[in-house]
């Protein structure tokens, strides 16, 4: 149970770091690059074989490369959304993406369709819309309304690819190697973008960017490590662990966002959060 609690705290702190980066005028992208470099190094240190290709086929390496690319792109979007739309709404959108791999399992892997799954998916979509909703209508509010929806779709693509990798690529032998390559590929993509996009290079070697990136890397790897440890520890079934983790991160982000960053949620947004939590609970039971 302690691993699950640490996983929730580490995952929630990711959104806090993005929000603090904005407060201290730190560009998010260099932070993300340092984050993935640190995460890859930590993974390599804690891997017994010290071989990033251990047990991986060419196809498995290709999947990790693809995941690394979309990881950093989606993380960039999450960082931007946390700063503009708020960490509460961004956390809800990223965690509601759990319905996308469930739909993949239904349509691609022929998992059984039950009324609970259908209800959970419909509630998840409703919760996302209500949480993102803003009463005022202008260009800025339209952007912040759309951002969580893009987060939902992007994180859903990540979750679906991970679901595919778990079924087709990852096993007990190659899981550490797969994770290291994923983080390393994300870092490589980030470094290439830093080389060619001049506006990011200005803060590349700034001590604030380095410190924030190293902190984020530790937290990011911690969220992954503690979730995997919770799954190995088996305090509950896997579906229950994932559901509790997602609900915990949403609630943590909601409380911290309101108390620390004075984020405001309308009554409609609050109903959206409640609906989203209900959706995850129902999907958790349905699996």
Explain what this protein looks like in three dimensions.
The two termini are 20 Å apart. The chain has helices at residues 2-23, 28-45, 58-84, 87-96, 99-107, 115-132, 139-168, 175-196, 198-201, 207-233, 238-260, 267-286. The chain has one domain (2-286). The longest helix is centred in the middle third of the chain and has 30 residues, at 139-168. The protein contains twelve helices and no strands. The model has no long low-confidence stretch (mean pLDDT 81). Helix 1 (2-23) runs antiparallel to helix 10 and helix 3 (58-84) packs antiparallel against helix 7 (139-168). It is 80% helix and 0% strand. It has 287 residues and is mainly α.
Question: Termini, distance in Å?
Answer: 20 Å
Radius of gyration: 18 Å
Taken in chain order, the helices and strands follow as HHHHHHHHHHHH
Strand residue percentage: under 5%
Report the average pLDDT across residues: 81
The count of helical stretches stands at 12
Low-confidence stretches: none
